[in-house]
């Protein structure tokens, strides 16, 4: 299922990086929404939503589940900066900046996810994030097929391959 994930793009915007992905998913919009915008769906491919108040201005705390070798996890807090049920979920959190999921129904069982991530940082962070989001979208495709990510099996191998590919583009 990972063949639906095309390489993301990046550009600078007002002194920050703006990453973009367009992910075509053969699943109904409601199902994709549940995966990208609910505390129940997010852990299957991205992170735990320790706090997610589903409304504009609501609090959000995201805890990444792919721990480093010291078993440390990244936790980022912020606020919901856009919320249109089943269409737009946007969070602005420390470190990762603005994270926006915009869903569009393209058929009865097809959805396009237009994703943007805007954050300040150097080129190394840009490459890390391009590879990281790409890898997570692979996990999303698998989760939507009934195979949520088993985080105990996570290793940086695929992420590193993706990072190398983005660096060579």
Strand content is: 35-45%
* Structural classification: alpha+beta
Shape: globular
CATH architecture: 2-Layer Sandwich
CATH superfamily: START domain
Which whole number gives the mean pLDDT?
94
Tags for this model:
169 residues, alpha+beta, Alpha-D-Glucose-1,6-Bisphosphate, Chain A, domain 4, 8-stranded antiparallel beta sheet, 3 helices, 8 strands, 25% helix
Strands, helices and their partners?
Elements: E1 9-13, E2 16-25, H1 29-37, E3 47-52, E4 59-64, E5 75-84, E6 88-93, E7 97-107, E8 110-119, H2 123-144, H3 157-167
Antiparallel strand pairs: 1-2, 2-8, 3-4, 4-5, 5-6, 6-7, 7-8
Provide an overview of this structure:
The protein is an alpha+beta fold and 169 residues long. It has one domain: Alpha-D-Glucose-1,6-Bisphosphate, Chain A, domain 4. Helices cover 25% and strands 38% of the residues. The chain has an 8-stranded antiparallel beta sheet with strand order 1-2-8-7-6-5-4-3, covered by helices on one side. A hairpin with a 2-residue loop joins strand 1 (9-13) and strand 2. Helix 2 (123-144) crosses helix 3 (157-167). The radius of gyration is 15 Å and the shape is globular. The chain starts with 8 loop residues before the first strand and ends with a helix. 31% of the residues are buried.
Quick recap of the structure?
With 169 residues, this protein is an alpha+beta fold.
